[in-house]
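The records we work with from here on pair a chain with its fold. Taken together, the tokens spell out the fold as the letters spell out the chain. To see the layout at work, look at the sequence and tokens printed below.
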Amino acid sequence: MDRIKVMVNGLPGNMAVKIARAVSNDNRMTLIDHSLTGPEIEEDEYLLDSTSVRLIQPDQRDHVITRIKEVNGALISIDFTHPSAVTDNADFYCRHHLPFVMGTTGGNREELNTRVEGSEIPAVIAPNMAKQIVGFQAMMEFAAETFPGLFDGYTLSVEESHQQGKADTSGTAKAMVTYFNRLGVPFSEEDIKKERDTSLQQQNWGIPESYLTGHAWHTYTLDSSDRTVRFAFTHNVNGRDVYVLGTLDAAVYLNEKALRGEKGKVFSMIDILKGV
């Protein structure tokens, strides 16, 4: 079976580096030695172990991608860039017929979906690449659809902590809020308590020092109106390996869809879990 050609965009960002290293070590894939990067990056290359990856600035990418496609043929793009670049990057992928896995959170997700649906490519767009957490979200969505209003009269608090470099509020936390809303609990995304202070993360949260630069801790707490009943849901992730594994599965899944000629279709991690 031919290896999947994969271009990981977002180097030298932490998550992009982890994904790129995993791709280079996966016998199903070949890492393309180019990566889209942000205008603030001054370097023109990144040394990934023994591989030199050329970093492509936004004003260079339309020219460079033509050459990359000529050399490599069909490829899958994996995007772990910055929330501010999401929409523009998706437009680039669609314009150049590059099926992509969007792991970057933020941006206008409805606009992303619309752009892909009007294009000639398929894409995987997911706010969370961790399959187990996505499965938990699916359970909550099932509850919201099956038991609407189940928690009428309850109040909700949502706390999430991520590394300082995460610019936006957790997409997973935002999705969970929508489920709790449908379960009868009024709550706004703006009320999510977002922690990025490393000293507080250690002192108040108990997050291990070695994972301050890469973690995702979430707790959702429901209290009855008289405070006699409490439900709490917690999922704490240290490191990024769980997201890396899910992203590689997404790339394999998307490649299969692209080979089958799928066009204008957005897939989710739920689709990947179901294997449809």
Observations:
- The longest strand covers residues 215-223.
- The chain is about 35% helix and 25% strand.
